[in-house]
Amino acid sequence: MLEDTTITCPYCWESIPLELDLSAGSQTYTEDCSVCCRPIVISLRVDDEGGFEVDGRSEDE
Questions:
Q1: Between the CA atoms of 61, 26, 30 and 18, what dihedral angle is there, to the nearest 10 degrees?
Q2: Average pLDDT over residues 4-13
Q3: What is the pLDDT at residue 4?
Q4: What is the pLDDT of residues 23-46, one digit of tens each?
Q5: 3-state class (DSSP) for residue 15
Q6: Are 52 and 27 in contact (CB under 8 A)?
Q7: 24: alpha, beta or left, given left = phi > 0 and alpha = psi -120 to 50?
């Protein structure tokens, strides 16, 4: 199941759209900001009911 969401880049503070694959479960991966091109560590947590939380942080946090 794919879910669209938006996070704020921890570098340039722009809103960044993400497409999340909830069927893969909880995961952590790196994706470049579409505005400033810096790497954002994306943490996705998926619960048993299909709800999710996502956040993005800089690599040095």
A1: -110
A2: 96
A3: 95
A4: 989 999 999 999 999 999 999 999
A5: strand
A6: no
A7: alpha
